[in-house]
Amino acid sequence: MGFVELQMTWQPSILSEKRKKGPPLGLRNLGNSCYLNSVLQCLTYTSPLANFCLRSKHSSSCDTSASKKPRDCPFCILEAWITRSLTLDLALDSPSKIQSCIKIFAEHFRFSRQEDAHEFLRYVIDACHNTCLRLKKLRRKGSESVGGGAEAVNGNTVVKEIFGGTLQSQVKCLGCGGESNKVDEIMDISLDILNSGSLKESMHKFFQPEVLDENNKYKCDK
């Protein structure tokens, strides 16, 4: 999948009447499925992802051969769920269908067992990202087989465009003033929400400078 121009704001014309005028679709608790419900709600109402899924951008280009059913593709599963959630004229729905596919996203997750929402979110994001990368590689091989030149597949996908970013961390020696910078690619940020009154406050705390001392401090080579 090449570069996709993402719609960052909601497109009301493709939502159901109830979703246009009413609250988000409620989800039944199937027994310790709170983690699943919260992640599905967050992903469904991430507007660029929702707009992408409502237009069937992934499933329309996914390989659906006889040995590869749409049910086995994590992104197809997520796309179908988001589309259903935003087009149903219901107040309440059950996530039973996506729960039955839980192992496609996270092999070690079990029905009716408490799981971590953040962990599941990362599994879903990573599964969809890896699916897009796999499709890019297949298309690259196909183009090479008909005479195209060999070209490396970059790691950019629609998932990375929506959720990805870079985080720069800097360690500065308070003695000599020397600085060491490191840049990492990220798909999320773990914020402290328990002791914060708002998202802005949580973000502010995350980026606050920290003094490393005693056993936590680094040894300066200078």
Automatic annotation (TrEMBL):
Q: Which EC number applies?
A: 3.4.19.12
Q: Which domain of life is it from?
A: Eukaryota
Question: Example GO biological process term?
Answer: proteolysis
* GO cellular component terms listed in the entry, alphabetical order: cytosol; nucleus
Xref: InterPro entries: Papain-like_cys_pep_sf, Peptidase_C19, Peptidase_C19_UCH, USP, USP_CS
Q: Which residues form a coiled coil?
A: none
> MF terms per GO, please?
cysteine-type deubiquitinase activity
Q: Could you tell me which residue ranges the USP domain spans?
A: 25-222
What PANTHER family is this protein classified in? UBIQUITIN CARBOXYL-TERMINAL HYDROLASE, UBIQUITIN CARBOXYL-TERMINAL HYDROLASE 36
Q: What is this protein called?
A: ubiquitinyl hydrolase 1
Q: What is the organism of origin for this protein? A: Hibiscus syriacus
